[in-house]
Amino acid sequence: MRILLVDDEAELVSTLAERLSFRNIEADWVTTAEEALERVEKQGYDVAVLDVKIPRISGLALKKMLEEKDPRLKFIFLTGHGSEEDFMIGSAEAGEAYYLIKPVDLNRLIEKLKEITGT
Fold it and tell me: Fewer beta carbons under 10 A from the terminal one: N or C of the chain?
């Protein structure tokens, strides 16, 4: 499984990527939407884990752009704002994407990654 982590908090995504690698999950990370678009163009990913609030663009808007580049890509959203219920109501357009509240529980993230990829 190969995933792309996108969050403007570099320490968060670099630590998550490192912890996932200890669990034999390949994870690249970037801190901007532009970098995410470049990576998806050049690399093949199974899942993109997106922060809901990325500078200059929303995670939901980035999802749409990434889907255009790779329609097979699956998504998990991370949010540090509001409750799960608030996010569910505000993200109906996210489609079948999953979501997790920050701080991210690594085991729950891995569980969602496996669920979304069917592995």
Answer: C
- Indicate left, alpha or beta for 95 from its phi (over 0: left) and psi (-120 to 50: alpha): left
Q: Which amino acid is at 71?
A: P
Of 20, 9, 18, 22, the residue nearest 46 (C-alpha): 20
What is the C-alpha separation between 31 and 85, in angstroms, rounded? Answer: 26
Tokens of 2: 């190969």
Q: What is the pLDDT of residues 79-118, one digit of tens each?
A: 876 555 555 555 555 565 688 888 899 999 999 999 999 9
Residue 3: predicted pLDDT: 97
Extract the runs of DSSP E, i.e. beta strands, from 2-110: 2-6, 26-30, 47-51, 53-54, 57-58, 74-79, 98-101
* pTM of the shown model: 0.89
User: Domains of the chain (ranges plus CATH)?
Assistant: 2-102 (3.40.50.2300)
The answer to whether residues 65 and 37 touch, using CB atoms and an 8 Å cutoff, is yes
